Amino acid sequence: MTSVLIRPAGSMGPSKLADILAAANAELEWLPDLYTSAEEIKLIGDMIERGWVRVAYLDGEVAGWIARKGTEIHALCLWPQMQGKGVGRALMRDAQRNAKKLGLHSYQANTRATAFYQAAGFVQVHLSDGTDNEAGLPAFRFEWTKETE
């Protein structure tokens, strides 16, 4: 199996990462369209500029990305065809490597993501009814704490 290489997004433009987000979201039939493509590119560009984004490469091609500010993961996106190839796991391990704790939100309907986060050691700590997010969908709050060595 080819190893996944992870690097800071650096000067990478946001368009490629927005394409990944759009493809991933298109697989989620239940997810409403919240932003235009231009708005997504702007949001991702802002996260890149702030140094929050790390990008995963598989066989030299961009395979996915993660956005993390401090202890909060704001996004984890993969090309749909990259799921199940260790890319998400590599991005998550990279985020966990130097963290003592992490948190994130995930929609309840995203059962694949729920299983992924639980396998990565995250624990569900809250379930909202959706009134606290833009999509209006029930969402889990997950948290991870590094085990003491």
Architecture overview:
- It is a single chain.
- This protein is α+β, with helices and mostly antiparallel strands and 149 residues long.
- The protein has one domain (4-145): Gcn5-related N-acetyltransferase (GNAT) (Aminopeptidase, 3-Layer(aba) Sandwich).
- It has helices spanning 14-26, 37-49, 87-97, 111-119; strands spanning 4-8, 53-58, 61-69, 72-78, 101-107, 123-128, 139-145.
- It has a four-stranded antiparallel β-sheet with strand order 1-2-3-4, sandwiched between helices. A three-stranded antiparallel β-sheet has the order 5-7-6, with helices on one face.
- Strand 3 (61-69) and strand 4 form a beta hairpin.
- It is globular.
- The relative contact order is 0.16.
- The model has no long low-confidence stretch (mean pLDDT 94).
